[in-house]
Amino acid sequence: MKNRLSNSFFRTAAAFALLLSAGSCKDDVALPMQSIALDTHAILAPSFGTTLSFEVRANCDWQISVTGDDTSWAQLSRSEATGTATVAVAIGENATSASRSLTLRVAAKRNAAVAEELNFVQASATSEGYLSVPDLRTLAADGDYTVTQEVKLRGIVVSSVQDNNYFENCLALQSDLKPRCGITLRTDETLYRNPGEELEIDLKGAVVGVNAETGVMELKPVSDDRVVRSETTQVTPEALPVTYAQLASGDYESMYVSLDAQVVVSDLNKVLSDNVTVQTADDERFTLYARQNSTFGIDAVPVGSGRLCGIAGVYDGNSVVMPCTAADFAAMNAPRFDGGITLPYVLSIMTRTATNGDGKYVYYSGSNSTGSIDGVSVTAMDGTGANITAKLSSSGGNLGFRYWTESSGHHNLPMKSWQELDQNYALLTFPLNETIDGPFRFSFGWSASGSAPANWYLRYSNDNVTWYTPAPTDGPHFVIPQGKTVGGGKNFFYWTIDIAPQIPLERRGTLYIRISPYDGTRVDRSGAAIGNGGEIRLHSCAVVEKVPVFNTEKPAGAVYFEPFDNLTTGLDYRHGDKLAAMLNFCGSDISVWDAAVKNGLSGTHVRQRPGYAQIGFVETQTVAHGSYTNNTGALMTPAFGASGTLTLSFDAMAYKNASVFSSSGAKDLKGDLKSVVVEVIGGGTIDGAAKKVVSGLTYTEFNRFSLTIDGATASTAVRFTSEPASGEFSRWFIDNICVTK
């Protein structure tokens, strides 16, 4: 028993000693040594105001102290931090006759002995033996000037030789951020100097003057070896904001400047080397100059507004800005100055010719090939900023966002694939130039291949972040009929969705509409998964309009008046070819109108249009353009309830398919009849006959026609129709039928 107690005691003591040992070892753990290092220990700044920076690499808290005779001329972006950080030093112009210097000491807060120092020196703007750029320009104000003095000039390179968008063998130099501080240096051979490097030029024998070819003042030294790199630290050139008046004055020639601008609407389908016209918010216009062989010359122009940077110059006698790099116009992606839609608005996919990608009203940024769709968009060329983009599935490698012309007039944007269902979408963006303060209607063309989704739903937003679903919220908003695969000029479907917004849609805001698959049901209803390569066609147009409400006043003295105010569906034909094939998008047929909508009218093949009626119909959604069939329409009024001599007047307009080209093979290519038949029913005549052919309808606007009915009875009514010959088409529109006595 005693031995067991003794052994237990020693085991406990040993364990306690081990714990004490462990504790003493912990106190002896070596912490990392504090360290500070700078990426440079000397900065020699140019004489003009600029910002330079250096990096502090540290593993501790640190702070900066500044010493010198006068420390007020340099402002630090930070004076303390923890760990690695960049410190920017902003300086003003040194207008004194001598250089000035500071010492920046970066020291650890907990151990001042851990420190590094940086010597910061700024050159003088008025050093003896140097000539300023403004003074040099003054010498050549009256013509070419040859420098005879033993003087030098210093300037910072602000153009980019690497991007090749400045004059051959030339560099733009700038000595300050003030007017007349820029000049173009011309050399015999290309000098590969980087933007932000300061050059020193021996001016003895140099010639200064305006080059008639470039239009700018140039400095040509005796030889290229008179140009050397100065010892100053390379800076990052910052574009100087100027107004259009300042740009046009010529005082900022050869300087790196910036203005807020946008490409004019008429140039939105061009590339940068077309030397496009840009405009300010006040419609002050100048040229964005880009050489074809620059690194961005063949790029599409930016379609938005924003900051444009570049070298100020002259081209064909006009003010120009010459971007140095692609970054100089990258910010031109904000809503346009003239941007924003007003309702009704049509985003048209109509093509200008029977060539893929050749939009009449939109610019297509893609290549019509299958592959990456990064950066591919369709943008309106009307200055509104409206556009279409897409997020599609790349999981199967079958990715595409193209722009095709279509013989049937259903010009379209094929998009594939859709395997990620509601994670894939077409996004339509509409900057707003008016507030949408009530329900609005969204109409568009959408069709699909057999392996593509059949069921679709729509969401809307005002910030592209939070999305809202219009009614119904528990099912798809539209469904492509089973087996109705797009192709061969048919199965291009037309859709309309009315939306009562739950969010404010205010002027200068943006309306976003996103269309996504509702579920995995395929058009062919095979039960298989959505196919790799399953494709949709966003076709013809997308229309945003207020839900129509009409209230036409009855003319004084009218015994009968039909303004068709009860008709509110279909698209307005008067939008013209912007609707492409959806020019034929009618509302419902008279056979399904309720009594209130009919208002006593009757007939066959009469369709709704917003505020007027279409008489005659051609099926264009499920029938190919080479097989169209005309359905002659007839519309009959109720009895007028008046006898004697009556005056009948009405507005009429004829239909013409404006979405196809001469090579399309569309049966209705030449246009529908421009004459209609008015028939008196129940007693009475027009010009001594029961029927009257009325000619002179146009394809683009309503015209007013007036006829006299003699011998009318209380049962007299009128039937409106047409009498086409075989193979002819006879769609037409009627509005404001009025009978007076």
From TrEMBL:
Q: What Pfam families does the database record attribute to this sequence?
A: DUF5689 (PF18942)
Keywords, in A-Z order: Signal
Q: Where is the signal peptide?
A: 1-26
Give all residue intervals belonging to the DUF5689 domain: 132-328
Matching entries from InterPro entries are given as: BACON, DUF5689, Ig-like_fold
Q: What is this protein called?
A: DUF5689 domain-containing protein
